[in-house]
Amino acid sequence: MSTNIVTSHLETDVTPESKEGSISKSTYKWKLVWSHVLIMVFIYAGGLYGLYLFLFYCSWKTCLWTYIYGTISFQGVTAGTHRLWSHRSYKAKLPLRIILMICQSMTFQGHIYGWARNHRAHHKFSDTDGDPHNAKRGFFFSHVGWLLVLKHKDFINKRKTICVDDLESDPVVQFQRKYYLPLVILLCYLLPTIVPWYFWNESLSISWYTAAMFRHCVSLNATYCVNSIAHLFGTKPYDKKIGAVENSLISVVTNGEGWHNYHHVFPWDYKTSEFGNSRLNQTTMFINFFAKIGWAYDLKTVAKELIERKAIRSGDGSKFNFENQHNSKAVWGWGDSEMKTEDIEEVKKYNKLIEF
């Protein structure tokens, strides 16, 4: 998953590959963008102080408000920017797209257009220099360091090859892109601060540092954990030769985004998991609810037979104990030109809208 401090990206002139083909982190030139560093220091300092207030000084109402606001807003990232706009794993009618856009603006993780474009590049060029948060450059880089430095020239060049026609034609995405700054000021900072102060007389200082700063910091780091931990620590039951792993702890803190090995193999599955109805996959429950009322439709998932064949052929044995062989190309989601015919034919769609 991707998140941006700003939406412009600069390049770095580096050649990190060693003679053996492995990456030596020492060969990368860390050209810091000091404005990004200062913004991140501001967010983390405010978030840490907010945690202190949250634990010792917050009223229970403000604590509850912070949790509810954070949980709702994060669906804008998981169900919205990630599963809907980045991977097109389902379709959403206009009211749901507006709700998800509002929720995503609450998180201040970069506008939908830039987030989704970068995330598609992450899947196409995962764990290479074309990946904006290449995990082979280490935990710190993939977690937050990539936001503090000039972007690698390989990422800049390869991102240009990503198709974003659907994002450019979506009026909700373009509206948010145009009015992004006022939207995030209002929804990420002002609204969560004002509600506790106005409705139950919480101090503005405590409201600001807990419901705004602390919540924002937690939201960012939850997303960062998918980029870092879910590419470094876990099992690989579906494809042992890619970096993404299964990590149930990350699924807990991200509403179901921790089944990352599965997700990189089948990025068009709206569940991002073989076991989508698990209590650890709250985002799937969210999408299922809107499917029942008709606002989400064409929910794409993968046939059990295809999952088993993939696990047998390519997994690490944690699902099936067989010798495996990797022979698939990476894709960014539904609609990628390199999707295999067999994958497309075996995708199942639930709650498909009948158009007249």
Automatic annotation (TrEMBL):
Gene Ontology cellular component annotations, sorted alphabetically: endoplasmic reticulum membrane
Keyword match Membrane: yes
TM stretches of this protein: 33-57, 64-85, 179-200, 206-226
Chain segments annotated as coiled-coil in the UniProt record: none
CDD domains cross-referenced by the UniProt entry: Delta9-FADS-like (cd03505)
Topological relation to the membrane, as annotated: Multi-pass membrane protein
Annotated GO biological process: unsaturated fatty acid biosynthetic process
Compartments, record wording: Membrane
Major subcellular site: membrane
Keyword terms: Fatty acid biosynthesis, Fatty acid metabolism, Iron, Lipid biosynthesis, Lipid metabolism, Membrane, Oxidoreductase, Transmembrane, Transmembrane helix
Molecular functions per Gene Ontology: iron ion binding; stearoyl-CoA 9-desaturase activity
Top-rank taxon: Eukaryota
InterPro entries: Acyl-CoA_DS, FA_desaturase_dom
Compositionally biased intervals (Basic and acidic residues): 10-21
Region of interest called Disordered, as start-end residue ranges on this chain: 1-21
Cofactor(s) required for function per UniProt: Fe(2+)
Ranges of residues in domain Fatty acid desaturase: 60-267
Comment on protein domains: The histidine box domains are involved in binding the catalytic metal ions.
Protein family per UniProt: Belongs to the fatty acid desaturase type 1 family.
Record PANTHER family: ACYL-COA DESATURASE, DESATURASE 1, ISOFORM A-RELATED
Name by which UniProt lists this protein: Fatty acid desaturase domain-containing protein
Organism: Photinus pyralis
